[in-house]
Amino acid sequence: MQISSWTLAFALVVQIRWTCSIPTIPQSPCPNLFYYYRDTHTAQILGSLQIPPPADSTRINIAVKFIVAVYLTSAYAGKISLADDKNSVVNRLSYGQRQPIGYSVHFPIQNPLPVLTELVVNNELLCKNNPEIGGTHTTLSLVHTLASDIPITFSTYPKSTTSEMPPMIDIRHDNRPEIEVEFHSPDILETGIPQPRPTTPGVTLTRVSPPKISGQDEECGRPVLRNNLVVQGKNVTKGLWPWLAAIFFTTASGQAFQCGGSLVSKRHVITAAHCVQQDPIQSKVVKPQRVTIYLGKHSLLNFAERNVQAKEVSKIIVHPQWGEGDNHHSFNDLAIIVLKSPADFNFNVQPVCLTDSFLSLENFGKVVGWGKDEQGNMVSKEPKQATMPIVSQEECLRSNRDFLYLTSNTTFCAGARDGGGPCNGDSGGGMYSQMVDQPGRWYLRGVVSLSLGDPKTFSCDLQNFVVFTDLSRFRNWIAQETGL
To answer: What is the pLDDT at residue 10?
Structure first.
């Protein structure tokens, strides 16, 4: 395998146009708890906190400190805000979903970027760092409190383990004079006066199994064919990935393969938004009558292949924020294709499960598609698969500064940077992962979106990471549009 033509051209343009000064991304002392990312709407560099819900508390108090190598005269020191709606976070906790709570950190300055020195949650020190910054500097202190209007008891869960909360990192201490600015924003406190615990039972978090996703088939993510997984670069056995969909456009000369996709229900296929483009300049979406979806297809060149379902399309739904901003093709690269008639589930055709942010998935995934192969063919006759490790946002940004303009908090990067992975023709295809403690069921974790381009070969540069659209960030939108 080796993502579509507009992707490569766009990435090459990014490399050529790089003339302005951009901030250096500092190294995070605790990347599992904090990392930097670029906001898609403001183009500002923000910080992301991923805080495991603490035990034995009805409030979550966060205090963080940063140091920046300049003297700031403004009283504004930045702010911390919830990444998701407060009510949805509280509801999530009340249902026993223990995924980290996301916060965005807004900085008072972009260049240089402040460096994290301390993170405290409910008076527990989780991360400490003493970076070497000589000369003038300013210390920034930010706080945030999350409380529920009704008491929520976390004590039904054991204390966080090292897998949930990394060990504290304490780097060399350096006694030096500092200028300290402490900032408590009035809009940081999420609620008013905390409610006392009632004498009658309130809302108690209990450990529950991940709920069944409404509208999805009970056996989603379970191929009928049990496999001895093939190695990277080898052809995939027919039926091994029964949710793999081939998207074809009708052209003046016949049908042409466009992209891959993933079947998630009898009537819905998920792919990348750029895969359903008719006009790359105007971001015009192709008309549904020009699109045919082939399910259960293995050989792209064999149109007499048995047990293949050819489906017409009734509607194409592109994410409403795709095509916005300076890098309008980089973010929210997601589309839903609605089939005119329902798919027939059988040995070769099955749906994949939709992921959610509370699922504990493996830190790698399988990417399958008919993209460019090692012999230079623009598409492969049969699908191939690659195993790709998922890396942190920080590692992605530090590997190549071009990713600063190609990634956001709705994407993730993956790859071994060894020349293998998705390329031309693999766009829109999925990355599939299993749960850590419940293997055997596959979830659609991401959608192949883009890669950097190689200026010598005008193809994808797989010595760099590949960018995927993070499906967990769009779960509510998918549910709203599909009922799944």
So the answer is: 37
Whether 411 and 467 have beta carbons less than 8 Å apart is answered as yes
Instruction: Tell me which of 440 and 117 has the higher pLDDT.
Output: 117
Residue 262 pLDDT level (bands cut at 50, 70, 90): very high
Q: How far apart are CA 250 and CA 255, in angstroms?
A: 4
Which H, E and C letters describe the chain, residue by residue?
Answer: CCCCHHHHHHHHHHHHCCCCCCCCCCCCCCCCCEEEEECCCCCCEEEEEEECCCCCCCEEEEEEEEEECCCCCCCCCCEEEECCCHHHHHHHHHCCCCCCEEEEEECCCCCCCCEEEEEEECCEEEEECCCCCCCCCEEEEEEEEEECCCCEECCCCCCCCCCCCCCCCCCCCCCCCCEEEEECCCCCECCCCCCCCCCCCCEECCCCCCCCCCCCCCCCCCCCCCCCCCCCCCECCCCCCCCEEEEEEEECCEEEEEEEEEECCCCEEEECHHHHEEECCCCEECCHHHEEEEECCCCCCCCCCCCCEEEEEEEEEECCCCCCCCCCCCCCCCEEEEECCCCCCCCCCCCCEECCCCCCECCEEEEEECCCCCCCCCCCCCCEEEEEEEECHHHHHHHCHHHHHCCCCCEEEECCCCCCCCCCCCCCCEEEEEECCCCCCEEEEEEEEEECEECCCCEECCCCCEEEEEHHHHHHHHHHHHCC
What Cα–Cα distance (Å) separates residue 334 from each residue in 281, 282, 379?
17, 17, 22
Per-residue pLDDT tens for 211-237?
Answer: 344 456 667 988 866 443 333 455 677
What is the number of alpha carbons within 13 Å of residue 379 lying toward its C-beta?
21
Tell whether pTM > 0.70: no
Domain boundaries, the chain: 5-10+214-482, 31-204
For residue range 306-344, list pLDDT tens digits in order.
889 999 999 999 999 887 655 555 689 999 999 999 999
CA-CA distance, 144 to 142, in Å (whole number)?
Answer: 7
Q: Decide if domain 5-10+214-482 falls under CATH 2.60.120.340.
A: no
> Rounded to whole angstroms, how far apart are CA atoms 106 and 210?
33
